[in-house]
Amino acid sequence: MSVTTTDLPEEDASSDAPGLRSGSLGTADIAFFVVSAAAPLTVMAGVAPLAILLGGIGAPVGYLLAGLTLAVFAVGFTTMSRHVTSGGAFYAFITRGLGRPVGIGAALLALVGYNGMEIGVYGLLATTTRDTVHSLFGSDVPWLPVSLAGLLLIGYGGFRSIDFGAKLLGVLLVAETGILVLLAGGVLLKGGAHGLSPASLAPAHVFVPGTAAVLAFAFAAFTGFESTVIYRREARDPERTIPRATYAAVGFLGLFYAFVVWIAVQAFGDERVVRAAGEDPAGLFFTAITTYVGGWAADLMHVFIVTSVIASLLAFHNAINRYVLSLAEEGVLPRRLGRVHPRHRSPYLAGVAQTVLGALVVLAFRAAGADPYQQLLLWVNTPGMIGLLLLQLLAAIAVPCYFRRVRHAEGAVRTVAAPVLATVLLAAAIALVVSHIDLFTAASPAVNVLLVAVAPAVFVLGLPLAWWLRRSRPDVYATFATGTTK
């Protein structure tokens, strides 16, 4: 049956969010979790060169357009967060707007999506660490020990209190954004390769055949920004903190991504940057910072890319743990997974389960002789990304459906116009990602079809699960994602 505050130990039953440390996180703390999950340095150094290669010097605008789309989504999303206060975030919103069967499918999709976004990144941790060690010391390290060490490190970070994680992510985020700001300063001070140019903003350079691919990359770069609502139970004054953190994260990422990509264009010049990106996409940012700042800064960038990946892993790990905690409290997952550590107030058993799952996936890929980047990262991460985009789409649809059925004082712009526009834009974003899936996976058409099918298949599996819960565990089904409504 579902867990209530009276089912929990006395020390955990004293607040609306049993066990978790309420009032721990401010706007900046939550924004750190969200922006760290996006891994700005990794996205810029690893993906932006491909966006420039495909979209030309107009690539910066693609990130602005993606940010604007998600800002529109955030209008309805944050409005609903003031009314639906369940810890289930996405699946709670979708349940309240579209019904329990759809919501249960969304819950499964959230588990698979967030796990895919995290577990695949252990392959990226291995490759970035290997590249950094080789660059700095000329040595080669095997990838499996790095991934397993990362699992233990992230598991420990999730075990500690949420404010510990927020402080750690704050430090790591300052480091990874700071090195990009340092690059920007060097380019601006020296005037770029041939003087600073606004040509990237010209429509003739923005609306080119490669723009669709740039937009696909750009939407992927924001994945995880919506996880602000997952921390509601630990936020100070969540009715204000959650919307502020959401808008701050979207605004920062959109503007920062666009600015840094424009800086990369200026570093090489409008005429040469596309050729440079094609010749050495992985080294584009390292070459730029070596030229404009110095080799020591390139060494720092190598190190900070590793810490950027670690920050992303920890942010997703904490988000997953809170989804599992919520579903355990709902009674959908075993209640044991809902236990909270008495001192750190972290969902530590959910973290242990997630770490074990990650280790099993990593070991399975290693046993199959898979490449940590080409297979572990791309093949696990891509279904997770699609899953989170589908959750955003379902949440956008759920907002007007929910507000049609309840009494409220919210305006039509927030409850109808913005969510409907977001639905159209997010559907277009998903279409762009799916139509350019080969850019994300570097896999065969057959593998791509399978990877795209994972997310909708998981969602569909939620329908028979909902039917089973309604017949076999009606108490769980009846109280699923009820939370607290104002």
UniProtKB/TrEMBL annotation:
A GO biological process held by the record: transmembrane transport
Keywords: Membrane, Transmembrane, Transmembrane helix
Region (Disordered): 1-20
Membrane topology summary: Multi-pass membrane protein
A Pfam family this chain is assigned to: AA_permease
Transmembrane region(s): 30-55, 61-81, 102-122, 142-159, 168-189, 201-225, 245-265, 300-325, 346-365, 385-403, 415-437, 449-469
Subcellular location, principal: membrane
GO cellular component terms given for this protein: membrane
Domain Amino acid permease/ SLC12A: 34-474
Compartments (UniProt record): Membrane
Name this polypeptide is given: APC family permease
Lineage of origin: Bacteria, Bacillati, Actinomycetota, Actinomycetes, Kitasatosporales
